[in-house]
Design brief:
By secondary structure, this protein is an alpha/beta fold. Strand 3, helix 3 and strand 4 form a beta-alpha-beta unit. The protein contains six helices and five strands, in the order βαβαβαβαβαα. A five-stranded parallel beta sheet has the order 2-1-3-4-5, sandwiched between helices. 47% of the residues lie in helices and 15% in strands.
């Protein structure tokens, strides 16, 4: 099946984070592709990817990057598709540098940004966007959200069944 979502990461070292987005897209049965492209090391390839993305049938791009995190912004500058940025936690500033880099886009070049290492929420946002034009996906996503609620309801019920004693010394 032809991918409609692209997951792009600045380096394969980002894969442990980005796999969470892939897992949700798999669960929702949304065809996707996954590639590593660097805004700094492969800038021509990033621009080519972004310019050709819509023509290839992609609908949403999820881009994760750490440190200077230029990747989501460079992609957004070169496509009309929605771009969701994931700041990746680095070793020096715990991902805050990447977060600031991604959210501080100039007017006209928006990047929807999720939390540091928030690949799951990036995939959820992509599913929500795609659901606007796909009634079957919207129903599947509503069931997913109901499942999240049911997990919490069950966990809360399980807590009520456990007796805790508070001791004062």
């Amino acid at each position: 099946m032809k991918p409609i979502v692209s997951i792009i990461m600045g380096s394969t070292s980002d894969l442990p984070v980005m796999e969470k987005a892939a897992a949700l897209l798999n669960e929702m049965q949304i065809p996707f592709e996954m590639n590593a492209l660097s805004a700094h090391r492969t800038p021509a390839e990033v621009e080519k990817f972004a310019r050709e993305a819509a023509g290839r049938g992609l609908k949403v791009i999820i881009a994760g990057a750490g440190m200077a995190a230029a990747l989501p912004g460079v992609i957004a500058a070169n496509t009309t598709l929605p771009v969701i940025g994931i700041p990746i936690k680095g070793s020096t500033l715990d991902g805050v540098d990447a977060l600031y880099s991604i959210i501080q886009m100039p007017p006209g070049i928006p990047v929807a940004t999720v939390a540091i290492n928030g690949a799951m929420n990036a995939a959820i946002l992509a599913v929500q966007m795609l659901s606007l034009a796909d009634e079957e996906l919207a129903k599947k996503f509503a069931a997913y959200k109901e499942g999240l609620k049911n997990k919490i309801v069950k966990a809360n019920q399980d807590l009520k069944e456990v007796k805790y004693e508070y001791k004062v010394n």
